[in-house]
Structure formats: structure tokens, C-alpha cells
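Course assignment 3, question 2. Fill in each field.
Student: A.L.
Task: Predict the tertiary structure for the chain below.
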Amino acid sequence: MFETVRARPADAILAGDVPLTLPLLARSYLLSPVSDTAFADALWPLLTSGPWSRSFAVAPGETARAVEHALREVMMATPTLRPATMDMRHLDPERRAYRHLSALWELWCALGDLLPPDLAILRGVLEARTEDILDPLHVIHDPQDMDLTPIERAVVTELIARHGLPADITERRAALIATRETCRGVAGTALRHLQAVMLSSQAGRVAQDDSIQVFGLRDAEAEAHVAASLAQRLLTGEADLSPSDIGLLLPSGPTYVPFVREAFARAGLPLSGLPAGQDMRDLAGECLLHLLTCLRPSAPVMARASLLRLALMPWSAEDGRKLSQAAMDGQRQLSSIATLNRRGRALLELLEKRPTRAHALAELLEGLPRLLSSEPALADDVATVAQRSGDLVAVLRAAAPNAEIGWDDLISHVHVGAAKPETDGPALLGAITMGTDGVPLARPVRHLMVLGCAEGTFPVAPGISPMFLDSEIELIRSQCSLRLPSRAAILSRRLAIFRRQLMTASHSLTILVPYRDAAGASLAPSASLCLLARCLKDCEEPERLILDLSGDAGDETLPRAPETKSLPLPPVAVPAVLDLGGNLLALRQDDEGHMRSQSPSRLDKLLVSPLAWLLNELGIAARVWEPEGLDVLTIGSLFHRMAEDLFPAGNTLPEEAEIETRLPDLLAAAVRELAPFLSAAPWMVERRRLVTEFTAALIAWRRMLATLGAEILGNELPLGGQVLGIPCRGFADSVLRLPDGGLVIVDHKTSSSGARRQRMEKGWDVQVEIYRALAQQSAGNPELETKGLAGNAPISVAYHTTRDRTLLLHGPAPARTAPGVEMVDADIGSEALARLGTELRALAGGRLNLPEWTLLDVMAKGGVRPYALDDSPLVSAFVRGGDTEDGDDA
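Answer field:
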């Protein structure tokens, strides 16, 4: 606030002035500090009604911040910070603008005297008594300054009315305006021209010179190190240059702070005003929100994982990482994942509870603070949890003991504040001058470097208001005299600030453009580069300004980057073999030092990419956190459970009517155990679809079994033994015995038969071939011997595909035929087992073969879908001979 306003004590002896700031106003008017959270805490319970109520029920945090932002803008558009000054009589009550504005007005009235802390200071100034004023202030501002909001202008007017103007106000105003509009670039340079005409509608062009440089670099880390190197070079080359003569502009937010801190510390260059740490999170609010979300029915696994990773938990950060990842991987019993103390074990037990009554949940919340971290640094956050959970307990205790929990209403009482930026570090003399996007630099500099000049920065594009369209803002301005900021006005102001930032430099401007974000995705340059390009000759396109310093160019002359939006990474020279030494098959060992067994899914990954297999063995494969969804694995797990429950071992098959009757309840129970998120109301359509599909598939399966005369010997039978010279294990979904005594190992697939049939016919099958090999080693296993697997009966294998109700059977033809049964006479695993044998021998010798795209294409034509390549961009990058892939992101 008051970025263009200066102030000085009315009775000051010295002639200097300082920026008008909120702390200065609070000190001068003896205003008591206001709680940072009181306003937000009072706002949240009021958001359950109003035009935003449905959004608040789904996304309370995001909705609360949007409404708070809109309400704040309405407040700042009034001259008194009182709702009584709003006049909506001329707005049409049937229009959306009136409905939203009146809802915000009602919300403001319901809050009473509460205001955000900064606005509370402004109202305190406007309504202060004369005896409360400690230090009268003279203000110096430009009366024509249109950047001031109505409330800022009202405060300035009030200060002038109370304390008057300094005697030399004319000279001071002139100096203020001149300082703000002064172009400090050396006359005749491209920098001076840019500062003068950057936002002009008739900008002329001049030749680019050394006063403006634009460099393209890989990412934020590279930018930070290049900026530190450039600063060192400037200080070495100019004897009279002080570090404070160098300015550094960063994008807003914490992304660049750690990189800049590390690079400049390594270079021995002090920084003035760099934030001291990361953004401060509302750990107490996050803890309560995640906890309530975990305790309610159909809890999403991501909420559980987020809670386990939270700093307030009574275990180390490393144990939190293990627990949260185990939760995301679907593990339910977490107590064995890490070594936990009494608090940790008690907290995991608490998360397993599912209270349904208000007082039971109140008792649980009362004990929560005692189970949280005992670290002294987190004591304040734990105390805040205790205070906020006490408020929730009061709400729950007010209900009858056996009253059901109103989860949505209760969660609406949990306020999670937005992350607050860490306060800036100390302002140092003789240190690099720091600034951020949207905030004018504190002092002029000789050399200015702008980092992170990519799309969405310099300036930050204004977001679309969820409350008002720009046309509605103009309507409110004309009919209510409320000057709400439009997107165009916000963008214009931010561009003006960016120009003033550039105007602080006298000798050079260096702009650094990142090609990639933190996730490696391509970035386009900032739209502001278009404004630079229109001021310089031979720069019709902004990309022509950029000199590539990313290292991708082998030419020492630093050629210009042709295009940054889709700049490819250089091709990776992929060797045929990586010699890593040692037996790679022995990376995973049991407690006795024996090689752990491989599963068919691990060998299927090895078939496509030994590198993907290796990353999985080492436990360093990419693990992406994403919301739970009804994916193939989840559907498969649920179908397997239905088949197991409805078709137990024995020669009696369920009746079709029994399947139709029992399946909905069985599926509901399986969903609660295996996929609780599906129990939520938004998944109702998917649940009904699963009931329909599973019922049809299992009735068809029942008819197929009855026609074949098959008896179910067992479900989910564990198999183990040696395959291709290594230990293997797996679970057979179902084992059938036909009337002629033959056995069939069946694997259920919730898919169609096309790709699976193609894979079997081309010899690329792995899974059931391994099951057959393991089943033939059943002698000595009492459980399998009782199922008849240890005899001499021939063993067939089959895939049951549920979508088209087909049984792809390999082995002796059954005595009876049945609709949907297809015989596959090919050697279904010849190609796959031969390739696996080659790869296993290489791994045993410490060699990792890297596949070729031509081989993967052959496998794809054989029905092998290369899912392993999706494990990580690293896996697909290390595939040989793919000319079409060389430009892909690595």
C-alpha cells in the first residue's frame, strides 16, 4: 500500500522523508495490533450460506480465499471501511452483479467490526481521536496519482486535513514526481530508450547495444548461478562498483529463493532483503483438516498420506515419508513401516477409528494434541491445534451424545490459512539490492538483473475473478461508485510497476529467461519481452532477443535460440549396455541374505525395460501422488474379491439369482476395505456401473464353468519356486479341475481379449506361463497338494477377460465346449521367456541392456504394451535408436 506516497513527522527537525507504511501509521496513531487470524477464523463459518456455499462444501480453502479476496477489494473500494457507505439501490436486483455484491455486503455486516489486520490499521487512522495521535504526519503524494485505491486516497486526505501540509510541499511533490518518472539509463543507450518508450503506443526502434542483454538458461538453478557469476564479473571489472549498485529482481513466491541464496553465498556476495526461509504454512489448520477428512467415511488416501507427512506428526521426517508413501501405495497396516514411539503408535490407532457419533469424535479430538510432536520448534503450532480442536469439541459437545456427525458442517469450521511469506531478511548496506515482481526497488542501481522472466511473470497476469466479470465491475463503478479493480486496470498497474523497476537501472539490464520449470516442462518467455522487442531494431520476434546459454549449443558464438516454447533437450547418446558390476538380481535380499523372489509383474517390466526393472528393484522408481481414481488396478482388485467371495472352492456353483442378490452388498464391503473413496456420493454412477458390469461378467463366468463342468479347487493360491533359474512367486486367481481331471490356472483380467489373444498367439505371454511353471513345482507344499496340483494331471492356463466374457485357454482341449472358450494353440511364452532368459543372464553378470525402439515395436505388434516406459521420463530417454524420440523431454 501507499507505494507512491512519502511521509515525515510534522515536527521533524531533519528534512528527510520516508515511505508511508502501515507500521508507521500504527506507531503514529498508537493503534493496537490486530490478530492475524481473527478475521479469517470469523469468516469461515459464515461461508456455508451464500452464492459460494456449494463451492465451499467441495473446496473450503480455495473458496474461502477467493471470497476473502473479493470482500477485501470491496472494502478497499469504500472511503470509510464501513459497509453502510455502500449504495446498491441503482443495481438491478435480478442481475448477477447485484446478487454477488449484496452477498458480500451481508457477509461484511455479519463480521461486525472485524477487518483484515492491514485494513484495521487504516480504519483506525480514519476514526482516531485527536488524543490518540502520538506523532502527526505530513504526507507527500501526487494528487493525480490514479494508482491509489479509494481507501488509500481517503487516508491521505484525512492525514492532510488533520496535520496540514509541509511548507515546501510544492518542491517535495515535484521531486517525488520527478523521481518516479526519471529514466536513469545513460543517454543514448538502448536501455534509456527502452525506459522512456516501453509502454508508449508509438515506441520507436533503436539498435540493441550492451546495455540490454537477454540470456536463455535451463532453469531457475542455472539462472541463479549465472547471475552470481555476472555479479562477480561486474564487481571485478568496475573498481568503484559496490554490491548495492547491483539489483536483483526475482519472481514472486519461494521458487527462486533457495537457488539464489545458495549461489550468491557460494560467490561470497551478500544479499539485502532476501527472505530468510520458506513460506510459513498453517500447520495447525492443515493437521485438523486432514485428520477430519481421514476420520470420515470414504476418506481419500491422499488426505491420509498428507497428514502422515505433516511436520506435526510424532515421528521423523524420514519416517513420515515412508508412512505417507506406504499409504499412497495402498498399504493399510502402517505400524510395521517405521519404528514408532508410543505417541506414533497411538496416533496410527487413532486414524483407524471411524467415529459416527458427535461425542465420540469430541473425545478423540480432545486427545489429539497430546499425540503430536514434542519438538520445541513446533510447540506454538501444537498449541494452536489444541485451541482450534477445542473449538471443534465445543461444537460437538453441544450436540446430543448420540447425534450423528455433520461432517461437512464441522469441516467448514476448520480454517486453513494461505501460506504467508517469510519476512524479508535484513536490509544491508553494501549488499546486492533485492526486489520482487510487482514491488518497486528500494533504491536506484547501476546494473539490474531480472531472473525468471517466463510466462506468467513480469508482470503476473491478473486472474479471472470468480465474483465479477469486468463488465460487471464497470457496471458497479458507474451505478454504485465503488472503484473495484478490473483485470485491465490491474495489468496496467503491474506493467507500470515493472517499467519503474527497469527505470532504476543506469548502466545495464540483464534478463534471464528459463526454458524449463521445476518439473522439466517447457516455458515460454514472459509477454514483456514483446514490449522490449518492439523498441529494438531487427527484433520482430521476442525470441530473437534471447542468447542461448543453456549449453545446448556447441558454438562458442552463443547463437540465438530459435524458439523457447518447445525447445527440445539434446539427444541422449544411449549405449547398448551399462556395465554396473555385481549380480543385479541380488539387489533385494531377505533377512537370511537370499535373493528375493521375482513376481510376474516385475518380470513383465524387465521384458520391456531392464532400466525400469532396476529402478523398481532399487526402490527409486518415480512415485507420483495423485488423487485416487477408478483405474484398472482398482477395478481388477474389486472384481477379484467378488469372484473369490461368490465362487469359493468346491463343486457347487452359485445360482444366477444369488449372484444378482449378493453382489451389491459384497461390492460395498469390498469398496470400504479396498477403495474407500468410492463410497463417496460423487462416485455413485461408477459404483452402479461396476455392479452392472460385474454381475453380467460373473453370471457369464458361472454359465461357462457349468457348461465345462469345472470344479473350483481354490482362489488366490500362492505359488512359488524357480523359473529361468531365479526364485519366483505369484498368486493364481483361480484353479479349476475339469471332468477329465485336467487342471486350469485362470487369471482374471478386467479388459477385453484382443491384446491378450495377440500376445499369446505371438509368444509374448509371461504371467500364466510362469504360473504353470510354478504350479508344476507344488510337490511338498501341503496346501497345494490338497488342491490336487502335485499330481500328474496336465495343467492348462487361461485368461478370463471380463469385458467380452472370453476364456483364452492354452493346453489340452476340454472334453466339453462352452460359449466364449477359445483355444490358443501357439507356444504362448516362447518369445517372452527367451528374451527374459537373455536379460536375466546379463543382470546376473552385472550388465544392464538398454532396448531399441525397433525391438519395442516388434513387441508392441505382439501385444506387449510398453507400460514400463511410463514409469519415468528417464526410462523412455534411455531407449536406443529412436530418431523420432530424440526431441522428447528427458
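Instructor remarks: Residues 5 and 141 are 5 Å apart (CA to CA). Confidence is low (pLDDT under 50) at residues 552-567, 883-890.
Grade: pending
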